[in-house]
Amino acid sequence: MPYFDTASAAPLHPVARQALLAALDEGWADPARLYREGRRARLLLDAARETAAEAVGCRPDELVFTSSGTTAVHAGIAGALSGRRRVGRHLALSAVEHSSVLHSAAAHEAAGGSFTEVPVERSGAVDPAAYAGALRADTALACLQSANHEVGTEQPVAEVSALCAEAGVPLLVDAAQSLGWGPVAGRWSLLTASAHKWGGPAGVGLLAVRKGVRFAPQGPAGERESGRAPGFENLPAIVAAAASLRAVRDEAAAEAVRLRALVGRIRSVVAERVGDVEVVGDPERRLPHLVTFSCLYVDGETLLHELDRHGFSVSSGSSCTSSTLEPSHVLKAMGVLSEGNVRVSLPMGTAEADVDRFLDVLPGVVAEVRERLGAPVSAPPSPAPVASLVVDALGRRCPIPVIELAKVIGEVPVGATVTVLADDEAARLDIPAWCEMREQEYVGEEPADRGSAYVVRRLS
Questions:
Q1: Which parts of 128-226 fold into alpha helices (H)?
Q2: Fewest CB within a 10 Å sphere: which of 183, 215, 307, 397?
Q3: Catalytic: 58?
Q4: pLDDT profile of the chain (460 residues), mean per 10
């Protein structure tokens, strides 16, 4: 069964498995102790730190191991903000950061701080000039991911880090999605990553803090990992994480070329074989293994279940797969279609035949889901155009409001409007996205007794 969700968690690399088993026998003792078993454990920990630091591009004494990538993000942001509290309490971040960054920003605001979200372009990337504009005299820290976890777009870290350095603001880079493919360029100050993203075991994160960066660890003090990651080190997992990071880096150059070609094939073939689809993210400046597309008139959760039934494990940023039934904040910030969203992220070693079979299966699966939802197959006739129409989609979840809009747009004359009443948060994003895809005019949103009224003018 092809597993196409390595952006969530990569399969355990064979080198990680071997290192983990060996370290279970050799690295069980306390590395802080001076007896033989402790010294042996300390040698393993030091070697793992040197290996990881070399991959990150920092000094070994600048890097600590945490219990997860999320923990690394929380500790990094909290420590940097506290260390620079005399400068101010303002935090800058992009609108498409991982939820761990957004949660840290919300907690900072709740504690009396403030933050600014820098908007992104439709490709998902920030404009460096716009990011520089968010930096203030009281900005204590800036955050920017190296590459987006949902759409694969690489961020201009080198450019932004130079602007941050010029402003005297440290930059924290969340490199969870990209570190397995190569080091992060630029003059970053702090960096975080997560081992299970590159084929290491879960439960190991990295936090690198450059020398000279003011940093004050938060919470009760600990004696281990420079006081920045309390608790006993999970040494076997750390050893496996470092070993697998070196291994995937050795394979990265060749695999990046091969997987980039496969992803390029997915991007082009999906657009050719599946009608009413939007492939999102930057087509060039992107991770080599990840592609995301959104299909009109499709329930994302149903689509994922159907692909799973056909043997494909993929993910989604669609509102329909969220426990809150709200659109992905990444897709929302980009202003792209959120319904029927599919993220394909290929693990190293993915067979070309598996990708071809996925491309053969996908069009039929999308067609079945659309038929089940009653989506329009072609432009509906307009026998007796009316001046305007109101579509009541209250209480109905995405993609139904968009489907109902598509069904009736042909019933009004060119220049007339269709008003969609909807109380699903996803409609605020998906109706404007549908208008752009179908070359209709999105007039805007108006208040309604319940939900909102979305006005669309027919142009063709």
A1: 128-133, 157-167
A2: 183
A3: no
A4: 94 96 92 92 96 97 96 97 96 97 97 97 97 97 97 97 97 98 96 98 97 90 76 93 97 95 95 92 96 92 93 77 65 90 95 96 95 73 61 90 91 90 90 91 90 92
Dig out the tokens for 438 from the structure: 């179908």
Among the listed residues 143, 320, 398, 435, the single catalytic one is 320
Distant-in-sequence contacts of 105-110, Cβ < 8 A, 24+ apart: 105/77, 105/143, 108/77, 108/78, 108/81
- Joined tokens for residue 64: 């600590």
pLDDT at 208: 98
What local confidence, expressed as pLDDT, does residue 383 receive? Answer: 47
Q: Are 266 and 291 in contact (CB under 8 A)?
A: yes
Decide: residue 382, CB within 10 A, 0-12 exposed, 13-18 middle, 19+ buried.
Answer: middle
- Which amino acid type is present at position 392? D
Burial of residue 455 (CB within 10 Å: 0-12, 13-18, 19+) is: middle
Query: What is the rounded (10 degree) CA torsion for 191, 196, 199, 200?
Result: 80
The single-letter code of the amino acid at 93 is L
Place of tokens 């930096």: 135
**The tokens of 451 are what?**
């939900």
Q: Give pLDDT, residue 64.
A: 96
Position 316 scores a pLDDT of 85
386, 412 in Cβ contact below 8 A? yes
pLDDT number for residue 327: 75
Dihedral of the alpha carbons of 330, 336, 337, 342, in degrees to the nearest 10: -50
Any residues with CB less than 8 A from the CB of 225 and at least 6 apart, and which?
64, 65, 66, 233
Q: How crowded is residue 351: how many other Cβ atoms within 10 Å of its Cβ?
A: 11
Residues near 99 by Cβ (< 8 Å), separated by ≥ 6?
329
The answer to whether the CB of 330 falls within 8 A of the CB of 125 is: no
CB proximity list for 45: less than 8 A, separation 6 or greater: 27, 31, 233, 235, 238, 239
